[in-house]
Amino acid sequence: MIKFFLMVNKQGQTRLCKYYEHVETNKRTLLETEVIKSCLSRSNEQCSFIEFKDFKLIYRQYAALFIVVGVNDTENEMAIYEFIHNFVEVLDEYFSRVSELDIMFNLDKVHIILDEMVLNGCIVETNRARILAPLLILDKMSES
Amino acid sequence: MSATTVVPQLVQILRTLVTTGYSTEHSISGVSDPFLQVQILRLLRILGRNHEESSETMNDLLAQVATNTDTSRNAGNAVLFETVLTVMDIRSAPGLRVLAVNILGRFLLNNDKNIRYVALTSLLRMVQSDHSAVQRHRPTVVECLRDPDASLSRRALELSLALVNSSNVRAMTQELQSFLESCPPDLRADCASGILLAAERFAPTKRWHIDTILRVLTTAGTYVRDDAVANLTQLIGGAQELHAYSVRRLYSALAEDISQQPLVQVAAWCIGEYGDLLLEGSCEETEPLQVEEEEVLALLEKVLQSHMSLPATRGYALTALMKLSTRLRGDSSRIRQVVSIFGSCLDVELQQRAVEYNTLFRKYDHMRAAILEKMPLVERGGPQVDGEAEESKETQLSETALVSTEPQASKLLDLLDLLDGTSGDAQPPPLLDPSPGGTLIHLLDLPCAPPPPPSIPDLRVFEREGLQLSLSFVRPPGTPALLLITVTATNTSGADVTHFICQAAVPKSFQLQLQAPSGDTVPAQDGLPVTQLLRILNPNKAPLRLKLRLTYNHFGQSVQEIFEVNNLPVETWQ
């Protein structure tokens, strides 16, 4: 089960956070700072899976943005690693060459995409066309 | 739908996914919908666990997936990883298991760190069940130890420790020790204790064992567990022929570095015990080392004065100095001086030791040699190779503890029966043997299962209107002059007896001690009796005479009675 999904930039500012298991608001910032600290301190040579408290962290770096997913023991780490890339590709298709600014200014759309893909900590949809279909319909409605 | 119907369907779906190619939208880098594949495999794993039939249906499919998946991209590797996990968990054919281990071996050789990490984790899980298969990949695992990545080296360390067995123990400990020298501090404690444990279980010779422990202590001394010191001293003590060798090695190690506390403690102990062997001459196993008495004493003094030494270490060094005073041929004035300085040390433990040793020098010099001679082998309490010996010792200890609590428990139960039961039976039934009086108060004084003294019959001495007084006697076997009498007052009448006081008098040659009574009210209708213990010392073994005086209130009247106890049994005073 996926416990949380974070997008944090190199300066430590959280661009997106989604928790699939309830964590109190004041504890969230603490968790995020610790997570980003352990991810930032690693070099390119080291592997992308970290053991952190009682769950595993799988992170991937895209330019200045870190995407970190925290999972429990039962998940396949490599599948989650692939899933992160899949998510970024979906964003890429929707925003056409996505950057950090796109995510900052369209946070609601990014949340909708993530909600289509992950439900209650389980991956439910990975097909790009199907994920983006409701969003494209919404866009069409708002234009007309 | 039961598992048996679902599994063939799942197998069918997965087969179509793998072979025919689902749809281009769902394919990720050449693998058709890896997420779905992974989920199906996970479900198959859960269904196939401990289920013969389902496992058989899956065997072919798993082999097909394992061979057909493209491993050049990460997605393919993810599917392969999940397949390996599934093969490990279900009741698969042995050929399939070998295939799984080979896949993991291939992962280990891959350059990508993620894949290596994942392979090490799954190998760790497999090492319990398929030990020999994993052994084949031992060289690669050892390679991974040297990886700069912290999580990778931690995994590799755990796996290497699990892979050590009696045939490869020398090579493995060599590798692990070189790792210990260079590893990050948080892994050192685990590595050190792992090496020590492996050495204990698989040591080919005692000398090798001692060497290994020595090396661990010199490299990572501060990180070892506390019982390592005790284990090493026990080990050295047991290896008779290696005393000279070990004391020399320890002396040279200590001479170089006195900061690592466990090393210093063991070295100090050894030098103290086997100091004469250190000084006497050459030992064929190490280079000839000429050591003077002065040097040894100087080194121990340095340990004592160093601010890096813990109080425990100083204790070791002080005792070692004392032992040397008998072993060395020179005079012991220098040692006496040092010991007397510590007589005013602020640490209470050290001060006590120093004062005791000082007294040993001054007043009991003739006993010094006898007291300080070589120690016999200490009984081992910790983990050992023949675990049965330790377990039997533990069960013995727990059995004796059990046995000693049982008599007390049974006595308590009998007493409760006594107090609850007996209507109309005024005299308390003959009491159980070892209990002096068998009353609740004295239960707490009971020793653990002593041999029962011969029982003296009870005596009823007084009876008036329902109030009865009886005496019970015990002669404890350890003290022949002592007699314990318990005076028990019971009341069978309808009214309570209050303000009950019992006093006793004996002839002048005896010593009498009256202990406090259990109460001063004897409730009616066989309520809780009042008891009182009398201790009589009879050193001359004269015939016993006892006079009792009772005062109490009964039926609204105050009563006073004085009488002498006749027909005391002979056993009470002989």
Description:
The complex is a heterodimer of chains A (144) and B (574). Chain A has 144 residues and is α+β, with helices and mostly antiparallel strands. Helix content of chain A is 47%, strand content 26%. In chain A, the strands form 2 sheets. Chain A has a 5-stranded antiparallel β-sheet with strand order 2-1-5-4-3, with helices on both faces. Chain B is 55% helix and 12% strand. Chain B has helices spanning 3-19, 34-48, 52-68, 74-89, 94-109, 113-126, 131-135, 138-145, 150-163, 169-182, 185-202, 206-220, 227-238, 243-256, 261-280, 293-305, 311-327, 333-341, 348-362, 365-371, 387-420, 440-443; strands at 27-28, 31-32, 459-464, 467-474, 482-491, 497-505, 511-514, 530-537, 546-554, 557-565. In chain B, the strands form 3 sheets. In chain B, strands 3-4-5-8-7 form a 5-stranded antiparallel β-sheet, with no helix packed on it. Chain B has a 3-stranded antiparallel β-sheet with strand order 6-9-10, with no helix packed on it. In chain B, a hairpin with a 2-residue loop joins strand 3 and strand 4 (467-474). The chains are: A alpha+beta (144), B alpha+beta (574).
Q: Radius of gyration of chain B from the CA trace?
A: 39 Å
Give the assembly state of these chains.
heterodimer
**Ends apart, CA distance between termini of chain A:** 40 Å
Question: What's the number of extended β-strand segments of chain B?
Answer: 10
- Residue ranges of chain A: pLDDT <50 for 5 or more in a row? none
Q: Averaged pLDDT of chain B, please?
A: 75
Total helices of chain A: the number is: 5
Largest sheet, spatial ordering of strands of chain B: 3-4-5-8-7
Given the helix and strand composition of chain B, which structural class is it?
alpha+beta
Q: What is the 3D form of chain A?
A: globular
What is the helix fraction of residues of chain B, given as a range? 40-55%
How far is the first residue's CA from the last residue's CA of chain B? 89 Å
* Total of DSSP H or I helical runs spanning 4+ residues of chain B: 22
Roughly what is the average pLDDT of chain A, rounded to an integer? 89
- Proportion of β residues of chain A? 25-35%
